[in-house]
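Risk register update: the risk of archive-format incompatibility is retired. Evidence:
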Amino acid sequence: MLLALLSDIHANREALSACLAHADRAGATRFVFLGDYLGYGADPAWVLRTVMDRVAHGALALLGNHDEALFRRGTGLRGDAAIAMDWTRRQLSPDAAAFLSSLPLEHVEEDRLYVHADASSPGDWRYVQGAEDARRSLDATLARVTICGHTHLPRLFGLTAAEKLTAFTPAEAPVPLQRPRRWVAVLGAVGQPRDGNPAACYGLLDPATNELRWVRVPYDVDTAADKVLAAGLPPRLAHRLRTGT
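Archived output:
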């Protein structure tokens, strides 16, 4: 079994299409969506329909903070994010909110915990950015591997049996999530990378070997960015797609 792990799609049809096609070619047999299907991008209806279809065929989907903002106002979105969400609400049918409101904040599967943000308090939407954040998240769960998103920045944190915490930015080579270490893997964003690389980012995990690979997938960034501008969304959102910042 090969798991495809996707987070922070943010209504980017072109990026999601490219990642799903790549994962299908790679032989992924299970798909896990870690939230934030909406916001920033110009294709929220298409993205949500695609995720809903994958869920109907066995995929797992979790709730993200932008998704929660669709049906629960006052959730902390500001600036461009708030503007994009106001626009997004006008694009979606009532069944979209019903689907999103049914999604869990976290899911445990074997020795893995899936969650959009920090595992210590998933609904508070804390970021896992540094060692202190990772340790707080690890202390909150018995799971050997926690997989999350939310930051749009690929990171990996490992805790040794001697309680030493290591942190690094993964490349595309597979990383063995060795025992007895415990791990927090932060996926990059499918739909709005912020690490200076505009290529979409998602993860492939082989549970048999415990190897996790961060995959970068080039996609038609210009089309996605032009759609943002055509929709009247803030130009900075188009700029972020083109620059990956």
